[in-house]
Amino acid sequence: xxxxxxxxxxxxxxxxxxxxxxxxxxxxxxxxxxxxxxxxxxxxxxxxxxxxxxxxxxxxxxxxxxxxxxxxxxxxxxxxxxxxxxxxxxxxxxxxxxxxxxxxxxxxxxxxxxxxxxxxxxxxxxxxxxxxxxxxxxxxxxxxxxxxxxxxxxxxxxxxxxxxxxxxxxxxxxxxxxxxxxxxxxxxxxxxxxxxxxxxxxxxxxxxxxxxxxxxxxxxxxxxxxxxxxxxxxxxxxxxxxxxxxxxxxxxxxxxxxxxxxxxxxxxxxxxxxxxxxxxxxxxxxxxxxxxxxxxxxxxxxxxxxxxxxxxxxxxxxxxxxxxxxxxxxxxxxxx
Length: 336
Ligand code: NDP
Prior knowledge:
Elements: E1 2-6, E2 19-23, E3 34-42, H1 46-50, E4 71-78, E5 88-91, E6 98-101, E7 107-109, H2 125-138, E8 145-149, H3 154-165, E9 169-174, H4 177-185, E10 191-194, H5 200-207, E11 212-216, H6 221-227, E12 231-239, H7 258-267, E13 271-274, H8 284-296, E14 304-308, H9 313-320, E15 328-332
Parallel strand pairs: 8-9, 8-11, 9-10, 11-12, 12-13, 14-15
Antiparallel strand pairs: 1-2, 3-4, 3-6, 3-15, 4-5, 5-7
Helix pairs in contact: 2-3, 2-8, 5-6
The structure holds NADPH dihydro-nicotinamide-adenine-dinucleotide phosphate.
């Protein structure tokens, strides 16, 4: 069996050497335990945070510890009456090809209903983040305008599509012409703007003639700068992520914008609220029901970016923070 452990805490952009591949003996399940073979490992932006020991909402991975991560696995041996060999389960078993579990934190995935990888994406943590963050914090109303960046990604694609279902005008922001074309033509956003092309503020203003009522924050950085002047009175800003800053080593140069932003929150009566997907566990059943239905009706589409080979996980995580992924990023660790 193989696993990746955290070898060193990255400074700035992670290096592949910050993660070290180790071999270990496939463990034997004890009483009440199951042995799992990892099929898919989810790669997510929060993993950059777990590599750092800066104060956060979750404890860091210790040096030498197995990297955390969500997985879909197959039960290959079971001493637990609730699980049979061959069951497919969602868990948080980390960056390893095999793992043991007492079953308490596993959820079965029915491969006859959906592709099993969707439990890590559209029907999993990122989908739930989008659903809860938009509906509970964004409070969308038909006819309003929503802007979301990382729009072709796991969270952003769902935010925009759900907002379209709720009758909003939806403007995406994405990196590059291919992603923008996909967001408009396949996902059905009203518009999509390339944040890498010149004059982002001007093009965003043109795309939002009635201003912005919801800015679903995934990235911060220059995208946030372009959004701020367009916000309407009583706009809502669910703060989900700030990926443009995850590799920062120092505060951005230039004047301190906080006093003027703080004043704008007052004068425009903005609602700015941070969200963690774990805050919304009570919405899980509604989420599963609604999104499964929308998938079946073809009202929600999703795209996966599947990297082959467990050994390529570190390189792929580095790429995620550069925008090299196109869709929900997964590593195929083993074939079913
Ligand atoms: P994505 O699939 O969207 O992948 C990340 C994308 O971020 C990249 O593809 C890239 O898209 C974009 N990006 C990277 N760097 C920059 C940059 N400097 N400026 C602008 N865009 C950038 O990932 P997820 O959907 O999993 O995550 C999206 C956001 O949601 C992240 O901020 C993540 O931390 C957050 N999140 C928060 C959760 C919570 O509970 N609060 C739960 C899950 C996710 P492009 O090429 O289009 O720029």
